[in-house]
Amino acid sequence: MADPKLDPIRTETGRWQAAVDRSLARHPERRAQFASLSDIPVQRLYTPDDVARLDYLRDLGYPGEYPFTRGVQSTMYRGRLWTMRQFSGFGTAEETNRRYKYLLQQGQTGLSVAFHFPTLNGVNSDHRLSRGEVGKCGVAIDSLRDMEVLFDGIPLDKVTTSMTVNHPGPVLLAMYLTVAQKQGVSWDRVGGTVQNDPLKEFFAQKSYIWPPKESVRLLVDTMEFCARHVPKWHPVSISGYHIREAGSTAQQELAFTLADGIAYVEAAVARGLDVDHFAPHLSFFFDAHMDFFEEIAKFRAARRLWARIMKERFGAKDPRSLWMRFHTQTAGVSLTAQQPLNNIVRTAFEALSAVLGGTQSLHTNSFDEAEALPTEEAVTVALRTQQIIAHETGVANTVDPLAGSYFVEALTDQMEKAAQEYIRKIDELGGMVAAVEAGYPQNEIIRASMDFQKAVESGDKVIVGVNQFAMEEGSTIPLLRIDDSAEKAQLARIAETKKNRDNAAVEQCLGRVRDAARGGENLMYPIVEAVKEYALLGEVCGAIVDVFGAYQDPAVF
Amino acid sequence: MKKVRVLIAKPGLDGHDRGAKVVAKHLQESGYEVVYTGLHQSPEQIVAAALQEAVDVIGISILSGSHNFVFPAVMDLLREKGLGDVLVFGGGTIPEDDIPGLLAAGVKVLFRPGTPLQEITSFLQANVG
User: Fold this and answer.
1) Which residue in chain A has the smallest CA separation from B16?
2) Labelling B64: which of A1, A45, A470, B73 has CA 20 to 30 A away?
3) Shortest CA distance to A504 belongs to which of A542, A544, A534?
């Protein structure tokens, strides 16, 4: 198409291309084709021609305004830096409480609770499958008693807390709100996030309890409850992080996350909730992987695409319903057990891409996490990495500094289009619940992770210290060891809790949980009552399983 | 020639099955008969599956930190059921310091993160054909 502005550039590009071809004949490039980590083809050069269709006002606009490509706040980090929120939890509530106080002292600005696997799966520390896992990959929380200890001396009106837990999320939220109440903090002053994103569990993190449809119903109960009683709380963090860590590409991470979000908004609207009542409280969570520009493009495309979906598909009117706010974690899966100090460098680049992409909150991984949970020294370096980016590099001094880069804008467009294509396929399958039931995202992710592994083994993708620049490993780094004392402590505490509580009252509460699950009553109310009586997590989740049934892994590979 | 049968198992409550699935798929593509347990298996269930499927090899993938409990439990149960000659290997997030103890318990080899898939098939070829 003729274009008076682009024609001279196209002519010049043609001339330059001919010169490059002559040079290539003598000096070939490092490889025949270049591509991003997620296999998006990367051109030698980007020019105004590659962003010719970009309309500044339509596609970028201003920070804090639709379509929010350039950020959700008008001043972004000039006003306030992102929340530095290190995901942390290990051993017992006492040990984790000490780590929280240490991190707050070191300048961390929000808390993020890592629960151990039994809690994530809604069972107690004395369950047969909990053996050997208590307190190992997170903190053990079996009842309100543990939650009281976890936040002992931490004022819940002063810090915000993110809790990474999904199917049992409503129960943990009920415990948190009860602790706040006991501290004398009213629910309208409690801020934070519970991840509570059930669908991605079936194809990513795989800590699930009940089947897809039922789990979405429980999420909508939480959304409704929070919109009514806990206005500053995010009742869901729609999470791409685990999707990526399970082996997806960046495009799949973006698409499946938004498709999950669409499913939740649809379910809430079907419940009769006003989209502008709950949408401002939705939050998101993404991975920051190693391909620097691809990640920045992903974050920018995510904001733009979500704004368009909320406006065009759901007719949201409140600008706050259209903005996507997200937390980011650097890619755990990119860390290597080999030459662990290299992970500090990886994490720094990943964190920088999250900041250039406009994240609201960030977790930087520690260099020892390919092998264990972080030591105090390792987590301090990770937190300092964020502080160095914030205070020394100058990247937080202007909003969206990479806007207008031919490459970044072209890649942002490509990322958006690839995600739209996936979302279209998922719509055809009948939405994300149906897609999950059909195994669609599961199979896409397995395929992507096999492709990646093969590319690493063929040397097509380089991982420094692993498939290139490997060394004979000498000294090892000190690792955090969690012994079995946590297991003993938890078993003792469960026995003590059962002895000291009113067991008849607990039984009654669990009966009400079952009734609410069977009928249509919002489950959050009976869950809060059960938790207050010190019902164990496994008891409350078990009562819901009695009605909803349990989801089994289809064991497909 | 009879195909070598391999059980890939995910014990406990940890859902990180990417490694297990990639290994399972690779072994299948390399000509092995692969049975995958799916998630949330106890040592008893893993050994029962090994018995029922008459496997020659068990591969166990663990991220949760429960390796010092799971591997010895599986090895004891195998001996109890007369399956002492089933070859057991493992992989996942397992600190190097813990490896000697697990080998002493009878695990044949533990693959660390970053192991090429080829190394796993070479190991199986050398040890079970």
Assistant:
1) A205
2) A470
3) A534
